[in-house]
Amino acid sequence: MGNFAAPLAVPQFRRLWLSSCASNLFRWMELTITSWIALQLTGSPWLVALAGVCRAAPLPLVGPFSGMLADRYNRASMIRLGLWGQLVPLALLAGAFLTGYGAYWQILVVSVCFGVSWSVEWPARRSLLGDLVRPELLLRAAVLDSASMSGTRVLGPLLAGPMLAVWGSGAFGALLALPVLALVAASGLVPRPVAQPTHSASAWRQLREGFDYVRQEQIIWAVILITVAMNFFVFPAQQLFSVMAEHVLHVGPVELGWLGAANGLGGALGLLLLPQVSRARGLGWVFVGGSFVAAAALGLFASSTVLWLSLVLLLLSGFGHAGFSVMQATLVLSQATPAMRGRAMGLVTLAIGSSPLGNLEQGLIAEQWGAPVAIGSSALLCVVIVTLVAWWYPGLLRLQSITQPAPAR
Q1: What is the DSSP string of 18-36?
Q2: Which of 72, 156, 178, 187 is the right S-S partner for 26, CB 3.0 to 4.6 Å?
């Protein structure tokens, strides 16, 4: 474990990691709280999914531009801007519910604000990993970054469930401390400058250059295709966990927290085995295999009507998610040149932006035929797509370790 904690000895990376922990904890607690409150206010799976659509809709619109800006401007400043975009709307939403004026439409508006803020900070945050640590520490930094995500995916729902049971919509107020902590940790971030091209190019030209570059890098392109599949077919299911809890498993908010925590615990366990698996099979196999397992286990979860079995299957799905999330960042950052990292991560954000369409698709299916059909059919399609991408781009499976990126074309 000491080896993988080595990046924490770098003060700037430590600040970034602590900020990520607070930001990720906020994200998973807010997702659990919002989905439950939306279900209680409306009683409609479709309207619960619509909140997820509003949260994810800004990603394809803002993500590519924020990735381009992360290559041109201060990435640390972009992170702080995104965190302010979480704190201010949350304070307004909490105030509305605490004073008795909270409404479903306010949740939708604030969800859009959260989506914009995440779209601004995520490419900059991920790109900053490559700036703050030496190349030989990049995989360890990515593992620690994913560990913060997996750990908070366990802790966030576990905390959110009892808070909902005790305070109801007042739980929004308790969340305010987390964006504040994330901002305090990020306040001292001063990354080293990244060499920029001497010529001046328009924003549209830089976007086009980024897309052309990524399209020619087959490994990065394969990662983006699988990222689209995972975000369209797999991750929107998280928004429907509240529907599965109440309508299928017939449990309350505390057990809803268990479902989210089981998914995160699987991710944490996956991180523990990741070094051994990656050495034995290679980085590409971990990415493809993790995506396959995450989707397949989620499909089986959709058919479960027993709480303990659902928890086991979500744990297994989270286990696969660990391989996907760590290797997604590692493969893209290691294959892209430093001058292209922001744009490459911006296009990954664009791929993540397929999730609002996935939320719409699963919400509509859940409204008509139930959440199990929505989650199960989508997960099966993802399994097929991951298999096809691995077949079309065999270089992804042959990738054994981090390689030096070729010069930008």
Answers
A1: HHHHHHHHHHHHHHHHHHH
A2: 178
> Taking CA 232 as the corner, what is the angle to CA 386 and CA 104, rounded to the nearest 5 degrees?
160
H helical segments located in 198-252? 203-216, 218-229, 241-243
> What is the Cα 389 distance to its own chain's centre?
21
Give the CB-side neighbour count of residue 22, counting CA atoms within 13 A.
Answer: 22
Q: Write the DSSP string, 124-164.
A: HHHHHHHHHS-GGGHHHHHHHHHHHHHHHHHHHHHHHHHHH
Q: Which of 32-36, 255-259, 272-276, 401-405 has the lowest mean pLDDT?
A: 401-405
Backbone dihedral angles phi then psi of residue 166, each to the nearest 5 degrees: -90, -45
> Nearest to residue 235, comparing CAs of 288, 294, 286?
294
Residue 41 corresponds to which amino acid? L
Residue 42's contacts (CB-CB under 8 Å, 6 or more residues apart) are: 48, 104
For residues 66 and 128, the answer to whether their CB atoms sit within 8 Å is no
pLDDT tens per residue, range 198-227? 445 555 666 676 677 777 777 888 888 999
Instruction: List, for residues 38-94, the tens digit of each pLDDT value.
Output: 989 998 888 888 888 888 788 777 766 776 677 677 788 888 988 999 999 999 999
pLDDT tens-place string over residues 223-237 = 889 999 999 999 888
For residue 409, what are its two tokens?
A: 């074309």
287 Cβ contact partners less than 8 Å away, ≥ 6 residues apart: 223, 226, 323, 324, 327, 328, 331, 396
What domains, with CATH codes, occur in the chain?
10-187+205-398 (1.20.1250.20)
The pLDDT score that the predictor gives to residue 387 is 94
pTM of the predicted structure, to 2 decimals: 0.70
DSSP category for residue 253: H
Mean residue pLDDT of the chain comes to 82
One-letter identity of residue 372: P
Report the percent of the chain where pLDDT is more than 90: 31
* pLDDT over 60 (residue 241): yes
Cα(286)–Cα(338) distance, rounded to whole angstroms? 24
Three-point CA angle 16, 20, 23, nearest 5°: 140
Contact between 159 and 29 (Cβ < 8 Å): yes
